[in-house]
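[job 4417] fold queue: 2 targets
>>> target A
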Amino acid sequence: MPRPSGAMSTQARPDTDPPSLRRQAPPWRDTFISLRNRNYRLFVGSQIVANTGVWMQRIAQDWLVLQLTGSAAAVGLTVALQGFIVGFCGWFILMGRNGIRVGDWVEINGVGGEVVEIGLLRTVLLETGSATGSGYPTGRQVAFVNSYAVSGHYFNFSTSGQWLWDELLVQVPIGEDSSTMVENILQMVTKETEKNARMAEQEWERVTHRYGVKSFSAAPSISVRPAGGLGVEIVVRYITRAQERYEVRSHLYQAVVEILHQKKALPVETATPTTASR
């Protein structure tokens, strides 16, 4: 017996009807519900302090210009050229001892890349991936006004002599002798990067001696971690020049592939003489 059409529509209604919307406005106290999170309270507090300091600086600067010149036009000119003046002063900071140079791997306002140009008013980056990831250019050039050196911050990942740490990631499947693989890869990387490590340690020693801190080693390091049931991952950290990191990484990966092939071909080579002797 067929069901009534009304019954069919009633049964399908729970699956087809949109969810009920809250038409009543939330209470006013829910406006600041996000402040219940401690980290967000710290963020809001720091932003209030920072913005208060910035506006105090701007007001004090304009007030000083007005007292010294007594001209409203001079105050307006100061406000209009403030970005230009700060950007020009930032160029002197960037050219200092702790500044940046063309070819450095830096991060400015959350954008990482290689410095390709440092002008009087702006810095141009060739945007790239992370320092320990792909590291290849994205094809975009990003320009920043040099005022970030005065009123902002930047990170320079290139050390003295344009040295930086890079990584190799090798996955060893289950059943392979990971300890032997780790030893072979570490010996290969140590041999291939020995010259760079020695030069980096010499330059770092001069820098650390100037500041009176203890020097540190540039020898490669290796770590092993599980790969989620697929075996283990071998992570090798080594030192290289910023301009040569692509070529060095490619060369080391080719050497790793050769080690893996030698490991797989080893049982065949040892079994051949035994068969022939019989």
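>>> target B
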Amino acid sequence: MPKYLFYGSYTPEGYQGLVQEGGSKRIEAAKQALGSVGGSLEAFYFSFGEKDFYIIVDLPNNVTTTAVTLAGNLSGTFSIHGVPLLTAEELNQAVATMLAEVSKLGYLINLDSDLRLNKPQLDINIDRERASGLGLSVSEIGSTLETLLGGRAVTNFKQGTKQYDVIVQMKPSARATPDIIRNIYVQGSGGLVQLANAITVEKTVAPKELNHYNRLRSATITASLVPGANLGKALDDLDAIARDQLPSNIKREYAGQSLEYKTSSSALYFMFLLAIVFIYLVLAAQFESFVHPFTILLSVPLAVFGALLTLFIFGQSLNIYSQIGLIMLIGLVTKNSILIVEFANQQRARGLDLIEAVIEAATIRLRPILMTSFATIFGILPIAIGLGAGAESRRPLGLVVVGGMLFSTFLTLVIVPVVYTMLARVTKGRAPSEIGSENIEATIAVEKQPV
């Protein structure tokens, strides 16, 4: 039957009951629950220092782990979930499959794994039914092999001021080959029984060390990217390989730089969405409308498209720096749309027709839009070119900002007026009295100044 590892945490009440009454009741409850589905308990471990435990069980092939509920009769409960307990050979087969498939990608080099089955060992398999028929128990066989092969201190004697251990063990010459294990005799209920009648010995290999991750046997695969390769694409390809080639009971986790990339990427995507929502709410409060912010934020997808296109043209990846640049673009490109929409609203408030107000706004605001946009572009251009120490890491940020600003600036002058003309029909232009007398007086004063 396949082995499974169950682990979980106690609630404070259940943990307190375990400390007070000991683990015997919990173990008996586990045995009873497993016995109802034809399973057996192999090992039960718990820690008084931490509120956790883990159990190794044998389950029949037709029983799923979700069908087993290990409920005890102590006060409180504990939650568990089970995963298959892999052998070193199964784990090594999974690693070999991954390495073989990853090597076909071409852009991952220096493939390596910390799992190596290079330690010779002997596996002794006991035929329990046959041993029981010969009057042998597993513990008797184990203790006999431990004593004769490994040695056991049975007593000691003193000679003068020194004390010596008396160790029972076979001579080195008598235990030099694996074949002698089958020739060892063990005392059974009917007399001496040769172990060859109850056991089989197999020569195998095992890892010198077997690492664990979250208490599960694990192997770490490492690789290096060729220059110009994308870490995000590499992780996506590795996920696809693991999903298609590995058994369903093999779990995978990220570590090191890959884990940092996944964590930071998810956080930055959330920040990107949060920035858009925040700017929308601020604009809605400023314009006292839920329609105009949509017109203004239309420049954001234009800028993002231009930024991604620039990264593709220059062969850069979407990494942490380029993602920061995308968040910067949200504030930079909405400025152009705000200039057009705000001035168009002012012109409509003065009584101009919608089309006339949009044309005048786009015409008058053209110069400040170009001035501020090109000032930003030329300010970021040294980063995009890649000058100075550490420029390779900062270059994607500069390319995103420069490409997004260039692309959005020119399209904003065309698309934003068109969209404003369509959406502004459902809004009403404010009357001049709503703008404020101070604003009107300031505007008139400016208009009266000679050119």
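[job 4417] complete. Note on B: The chain is about 50% helix and 20% strand.
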